[in-house]
Each structure stands twice: as C-alpha cells, then as structure tokens.
Amino acid sequence: MKIIGTGSAIPKKIVTNDMLSEFLDTSDAWIYPRTGIKYRHVISDEKLEDLAAEAAVKALENAGMKAEDLDFIICSNVVNEYVTPSLSCIIQGAIGATCPCLDINCACAGFMYALDIAEAHYKAGSVKNVLIVCAEEPTRMTSWKDRNVCVLFGDGAGAAVLTEGDNIKGIKLSAASATDKLYQIRTLEPTPYITKEEQNISLQMRGQDVFKFAVKASTGDIRYLLDKLGMKPDEIGHYLLHQANVRIINSIKEFLEQPDEKFPTNVETHGNSSSASCPILLDECNRKGILKRGETIALSAFGAGFISGAVIMEW
Ligand code: ACO
C-alpha cells in the first residue's frame, strides 16, 4: 500500500513542566533534561472520539478521498471512555463511512501493527482504501500523584489514509511479554461469584527497564529490516521514532550513526502520546514538507507488552 494522506488532532489544554510542579514534587529542571519534554497537550473538555474523528477527516481531506470510499478502518487505542462499541465504529459513524471496523490494542506500537494489518488485507485482495486512526489518552491511565509516570504523557490522535501501491517495503513486528514492567489494571463490574481480590492500579512503569527495552527493540527492528532489504542506515531519509523520550531517540540515533536532522521530534511539545505519537509526527512532517516524495523513511515504535514494530516505506 502507500500512504496518501495524514491528519492529526490534539487537545487545546497545554500543561507545562512548571504547571506540574505546582502540585507535584517535580520540576522543569528534572523533567526536561531526562525526557526532552517541555509541555504536553492534555484532554480537558474534549472527548477522545472527537479528536479521533477530527484526525480522520483531516487525513481524508489530505488524501482527497471520501469516507464512503474506505474499505476498512483500523483504530489503535489502549483506553477511552467506551469499552464498547469500538472506537473505530464510533469514528465510522462520525465521518460517514460504511466499511468494516477493527480496534487493536498494541500500546505505543499500534501504528506499525495497524500498517501490517492493512498491508496484509490489501495483499489478500480484500481492501483497497484503508483509514488508520491512532487515538490515545494516556493521561487518563496515570495517577497525577505519581511523578514517576504522569509527567511523561500527553494525549492526541493521528491518522493516515492508505491506498493501493507498493511503497511499504518491509514491516517487522516483535513482542516479548513483560507484564510487570509497564501495566495498568482496572476492576470490572462485580458479580455475586467474584471471590478474588481486585483493585484499580494506575499505570505503573519500571522506567529504566522500559528505556533499555525501547533502545534494544527499536534498533533491533530497524536493523532487521535494513538487512532484509539490503539497505544501509544512510539510505533512509528520515527516521520517525516513537516520541517517548528524547534520550531514547538519541540512543537509537547513535546506534544508527545518523545525523540529527534525520530524526524529527515533537516530544518537546507533545510528551508521549502512545500509539498516536508516530502518526502525529508523520502528519506534522508531511504538512511542513519535511518528507520529500520518493524518499525512503523508517518508522519505529515500542511500548507496553512489551511489543515493538518498525516499517520502512517509500514516501
Ligand atoms: N520529578 C522529580 N524527580 C523524579 C521524577 C519527577 N517527575 N520522577 C522520578 N523522580 C526521582 C525518582 O524518585 C528517583 O529518586 P531517588 O533516586 O531518590 O529514588 C530519581 O528521580 C531518579 O529516578 P530514575 O528512575 O533513576 O530516573 P531516570 O534517570 O531513569 O529517568 C525516566 C526516569 C525518565 C522515567 C527514564 O527511566 C525513562 O525515560 N524511561 C523510559 C520511560 C518511557 O519512555 N516510558 C514510556 C515508553 S513505552 C510507552 O510509550 C508506553
């Protein structure tokens, strides 16, 4: 397939590091050097499904495609207010599409997994036009009393429209179960038969383990694809990496021995918006004209699971 349109939508509320230090024992002097984050956009009166639909409409406009021409909508989401119906079904109704819909929960690597699903359906001959929307509100998963976690995240939605083509050159997906390193637990409705102990636990993270996994998985996925395609890191025009932490991005950059300008970032102003991070960055680069038609780009993301994925494609 090939990507022919992108879109994004972010909440209007900006929360700076200084604003966090008003109610948390933290500071810009701690957060910025360790993460690269200056501020993040946080959901206040918006609904995530509205941001998701807005990103989808922008991507369709950018692609010059009508919603009724879509054959499939894939939505990547970890948490939103609806348990059911799926967010993809809510988006379908909001944009006036009629095609089948699928939600996936692949944490921060959702965009890579969604691209893989779209490509597989396209190769099977069952779809021609696919909308991918990654919409996330991780700020509703964290405790805002836990300075270890809540300072890292922001909310938003990113979308891409794909159609027939052979621009996707390779996809590598990985998973390595680690349920004690990055997780959130919520209780379900009680029944008369539940005898086990249950509790709500906000997002918990072993930061240094996540950091090490992220660098290892991302460099491994990208290296695997480069080797498979017989390419050198120099042949990639831009690397669009999951925007979790600028130090993770710098470690991957050093491993690949590539210059700064090949690694656009927005973690400074968005924080980590989970699976929405890569498509939001892709949309910003697309609209700013940073990506040149015909150049080869690499996308890579990693997250809870642990799972990770990378894609090499022609832009
Ligand atoms: N403000 C001030 N102090 C803090 C804060 C904060 N926000 N958070 C932690 N600290 C303190 C800790 O309590 C600790 O204090 P102590 O030494 O007295 O115990 C001290 O700072 C150092 O903590 P470390 O964990 O050693 O700090 P580190 O340098 O490892 O940085 C960080 C922590 C930024 C979380 C880092 O480990 C990291 O970036 N990990 C990756 C996290 C990530 O990217 N997660 C998401 C990826 S997956 C996904 O996207 C879902």
TrEMBL record:
SUPFAM superfamilies, A to Z: Thiolase-like
The record, for NCBIfam families, names: fabH, PRK09352.1
Q: Name the PANTHER family on file.
A: 3-OXOACYL-[ACYL-CARRIER-PROTEIN] SYNTHASE (PTHR43091), BETA-KETOACYL-[ACYL-CARRIER-PROTEIN] SYNTHASE III, CHLOROPLASTIC (PTHR43091:SF1)
Q: Where is the Beta-ketoacyl-[acyl-carrier-protein] synthase III C-terminal domain?
A: 226-315
Q: In which pathway does it act?
A: Lipid metabolism
Would you identify the family this protein belongs to, as annotated? Belongs to the thiolase-like superfamily. FabH family.
Key words, A-Z: Acyltransferase, Fatty acid biosynthesis, Fatty acid metabolism, Lipid biosynthesis, Lipid metabolism, Multifunctional enzyme, Transferase
**Which BP terms in the Gene Ontology apply to this protein?**
fatty acid biosynthetic process
Q: From the Swiss-Prot or TrEMBL record, what is one GO molecular function term?
A: 3-oxoacyl-[acyl-carrier-protein] synthase activity
What is one Pfam family matched by this protein? ACP_syn_III_C
Query: What protein is this chain from?
Result: Beta-ketoacyl-ACP synthase 3
